[in-house]
Amino acid sequence: MKIIRATVNVTCPGRNFITLKIETDEGIYGLGDATLNGRELAVASYLTDHLLPCLIGRDPFQTEDIWHYFYRGAYWRRGPVTMTAIAAIDMALWDIKGKALNTPVYNLLGGRSRSGVMVYGHANGRDIEETSDEVAHYVEMGYLAVRAQTGIPGLPSTYGVSKDKMYYEPAEKGLPVENVWSTEKYLFHVPQLFEQLRLRFGHDLHLLHDAHHRLTPIEAGRLGKSLEPYHLFWLEDPVPAELQEGFRLIRQHTITPIALGEVFNTIWDAEHLLREQLIDYIRATVVHAGGLTHLRKIADFAAIYHVQTGCHGATDLSPVSMAAALHFGISVPNFGIQEYMRHTPETDAVFPHTYSYDGKGYLHPGDGPGLGVDLDETLAAKYPYDRAYLPINRKLDGTMFHW
Ligand code: EZ4
Ligand code: CO
After folding, report:
1. Which atom of ligand 1 is nearest to 236's Cα?
2. pLDDT, tens digit, for every residue of 268-309?
3. List of the chain residues with pLDDT < 70
4. Which of 210, 262, 340 for a ligand 1 pocket mutation test, highest count of atoms within 8 Å of Cβ?
5. Which residues are catalytic?
6. Is any ligand 1 atom within 6 A of the Cβ of residue 37?
7. Which pick of 66, 77, 122, 260 has the fewest CB atoms within 10 Å?
8. Whether this model's pTM surpasses 0.90
9. Could you confirm whether domain 108-368 is CATH 3.40.920.10?
10. For atom 6 of ligand 1, which residue has the closest CA?
């Protein structure tokens, strides 16, 4: 089998998605997600202008060789744009392999290790009461795990608190929105949220929280310690992970489990954190960390150090990524949990898919060949690209901060 064509589709059914389609001389095609929130067209260009011409004529089954061809062959290694582009190619090739062999991709990754993929949903509200009611909503829908974020008194907007409760989307059209931030107000308020949630929902429900890279290690230690009575499933991204030994300080102060890595691109981003057992869940995801070929290596390395997977699964990861994450999640031995933010009906219509939620807390990839996702190109063409950015964040005195 040979690759005869590779094209990039850009569509905006409510938000921008970049999708790679790789076609073969046997009429089989595969899809890969190449969406990098707020920087979408850079990946589209990287693929079209630089990678795709080198793909024509290759055998789509050679996923390792093709991965290394683009990784080593660039000379300029790593980085989110490069690794998202490589991931899109890799995903599409696994999709082709599954279709050619008439089997779901999870069978090529070791088969089913479990009956379903446990997911967590996103509950958020302007205040503790509204967030608590949203958690109740997820419990009614059968979720076993819920991430909870709340507005902070004194801050007009906060990460994780959305206008549209069903379909959380942090990117906005136009130039970047500016948020304001106060670590002091945040650290005082968040433990009160989890105190209320445990009082209302008891101790069985898994509760998660995302600090979204806003703390220093000692502040993260304080937050983790103050949340210990409410035994979170995890505290996510407490500190930006550029300085990895900083996480030792968090470990000295708290036993709250730490999840990290949604912005990681390669195993080398996580190497120190894993080897020193400074985190408990690795959030690297198929689309931003080099595809299934590379994510499996990250997961295997993590497994040696008792670290489980907890892949990023926000709305900016297209249904193609979600499907790949589910084939990965159902097969990987050290699976922990999968993030799941529902896509809008417009997005689901552009990307018809076989994966489904079972009403009991689990997603299932479906048993069709390949990844089980298609792209309705006629419908996609009705939604042209519309520039949007993630917000930026400033402290109360105007200092540029982490978003
Ligand atoms: O901010 O996907 O855990 N989930 C997250 C997301 C990310 C967005 C960035 O594009 O942190 O909300
Ligand atoms: Co996050």
Report:
1. 3
2. 999 999 999 999 999 999 999 999 999 999 999 999 999 999
3. none
4. 262
5. 159, 212
6. yes
7. 77
8. yes
9. no
10. 314
